[in-house]
Protein: Arsenate reductase-like glutaredoxin family protein
Organism: Chryseobacterium defluvii
Amino acid sequence: MKKVFYLNTCDTCRKILSQFDLTDWEHREIKTEPVTKEELAEMHKRTKSYEALFSKKSTQIKARGIDVKSLEEKDFKKLLLDHYTFLKRPVFITDQEIFVGNDKKNVEKLKEFFGVTE
């Protein structure tokens, strides 16, 4: 399995995806085709945390008046299934690994995985 979850309107996602050869990867644009319960369960199985998959930069947090510090794992799960912007992105899933988000450390790991040298 090689799957990447991303948001087409996100410049950061597009920039990261453009660095890699993803021709044999399944592409999932999460706004038009949201993450399923099964896919979220697979992501959770690999990260051991819904919070690790949750984007604390989502515009929906402020719009809904959510106090992120008061959330529990079940709340993160519910929100992740409720609206696509709550998923930290992009998410790359292989048979053995998962790469979540766009922080520098994660992007460096992706570059190592794809064998990209600068």
